[in-house]
Write a structure and sequence with these properties.
2 helices; 97 residues; 5 strands; 28% strand; 36% helix; YaeB-like fold
């Protein structure tokens, strides 16, 4: 299985890193390592996270610290869809206009 990080998830990670690194670069680096470890764990165990059918078909979530990794496992690829703070209203991320 291969890992793919969506563009919105890449933007989320950059925003998180910038926000934390502005006060504490070491903490930002630790958090990014934690995300990487989570992504590797999800590659090994793609059904580890909680199913989130209320968000979108096939979406699962897994916590990392105060953040939620939203991902979608498929046959060949595990896609990281978003990475958001746990206080985020997740349903608003998947609203259809």
């Amino acid at each position: 299985m291969k890992l793919r990080i969506s563009e919105p998830a890449r933007e989320d990670l950059l925003e998180i890193w910038q926000h934390i690194a502005s006060d504490n670069p070491e903490a930002a680096a630790r958090l990014m390592r934690g995300f990487k470890e989570t992504f590797e764990k999800l590659l090994r165990f793609p059904n580890l996270g909680r199913e989130r059918p209320e968000l979108a078909i096939g979406i699962r979530s897994f916590p990392t610290g105060r953040y939620i990794v939203l991902y979608q496992p498929a046959d060949e690829v595990l896609e990281i869809v978003r990475v958001r703070h746990g206080a985020t209203k997740l349903d608003e991320l998947f609203e259809v206009e």
